[in-house]
Amino acid sequence: MAETETTANSAWSEPGATDDTNGRVTLAIVFCLLSMSSVQFGAALSKPAMESVGAFGATWLRLSWAAAFLLILVRPPFLRYTRAQWISALSLGATMAVMTLCFFAAIARIPLGLAVAIEFLGPLTVAAVFGGRGWRLLCPVIAAAGVLCLSWDGSSWVADTRGLLFAFGAAIGWGGYIILMKQAGQRFKGLEGLAVSLLFAALFATPFGLSQVQSGFSFDMLLMTARLAILVPLLPYALEFMALRRMQPSAFGILMSLEPAIGAGAGFIVLGQALSLNQIFGVALVMLASAAGTLLAKA
Q: Domain of 197?
């Protein structure tokens, strides 16, 4: 029994964890659940902003607001950072920009639940690759089958090609984000790494968002995107940043498999995007991939 408990802890916590492992892991799980809820309901509530200034424009404004809020709060000492820290923040910022731009461009074209399920293929693949080998590598395949079911509502396909490509781009970005966020959390104090990375993310997103914002810019839009920036991306990124300091990337990827179900719920509650039985089965397959990944976790 003791051996089983040790194995579970090694999959979910930092190497060499002490007696406070359970508390750290529990707190990390709470952070992840709050992050997922914030992302999905924030995404669902973003539709008016995206209709006014486009998906890229709304995303750029959110990233800019989030970076400004965190820079004022954290006040990172830029002149003291090493070359390795700058490279880490630059890489994470670029990945954040790709992930966020692609995700919101995807949900502007395809249902939220489907976009989230596709995006989740990124962290699930990270969990499979970093958490073990053998049968666990089938988990992304099971999740992909779930995505296929979500794409068919029983009478027609619910996604267009560009929406799917953007969603897969978000998946690649999210997979890289998990790895790079973990590294940044180890190289920076507190939320300094996140603050600097968000600054780079906003800069990378500027060429894509600026042209769209110019056509629908208003003071009301600034206020709306400032509020949305708290839900997405400021609060989720901060929560995930702290969670990844308390658990392994593989465990984080497994836990985040709850996101397709939360996304489907947010899509239904906020946007009225009901799922057919076939699509509910697709969500269940993604959840099954998570359960299988947990059971087959490397000791």
A: 20-295
